[in-house]
Amino acid sequence: VLVGLGLALAAGIVLVVTHRLRGVVHAVLAPSRDLLRTRRGAALFGLSILLWLAEGSVYAILGSVAGLHLSLADGFYVMALANLAAMIPAAPGYVGTYEFFGRQVLSVMGFPKGPSITLIVLMHFFQLLTLAVMAVPAIIVLARRRPPDEPEEQP
């Protein structure tokens, strides 16, 4: 009887957790589904895929520069895990966690530590440089489009 009650309680907990989890998954995926319903959303999705492909390719290319022979799949794998690690709070510019986890991923994959850290530092520098080069013109363009500040009304 106690085993039956325990199983019933466990089943109830699983149902509640599954129902809540389903709600969370729906809330997370709904905006993605809506993204593909418009032409602009589909274009942005396609651009996003192209940019991820480019970044994964850069990992593989810079791997060769660092003395590692990464396949394209290796580049995507390292990119995915290093970028996930960048979500962990760290110093400005994600210095520290990105390098640590990137090196760990490459070490687990069997690559030597020296060239691994070289690749991760190169990749991090390349990412920050790319962002800076793209951000400066964007900031200038946006600053020119900004309407002049309206004078405050005096009471």
Topology diagram in text:
Elements lengths: L1 H34 L3 H27 L6 H14 L11 H12 L4 H33 L10
Please sum up the structure shown.
The protein has helices at residues 2-35, 39-65, 72-85, 97-108, 113-145. The chain has 155 residues and is mainly alpha-helical. Helix 2 (39-65) crosses helix 3 (72-85) and helix 3 (72-85) runs antiparallel to helix 4 (97-108).
Please work out how many helical segments DSSP would assign. 5
Largest sheet composition: none
Mean pLDDT: 83
β content, as a range?
under 5%
Give helix and strand order, one letter per element, not per position.
Answer: HHHHH
Description:
The protein has two domains: 1-35; 48-144. Helices cover 77% and strands 0% of the residues. It is built from five helices and no strands. Helix 2 (39-65) packs antiparallel against helix 5 (113-145) and helix 4 packs across helix 5. The longest helix has 34 residues, at 2-35. It is extended, with a radius of gyration of 23 Å.
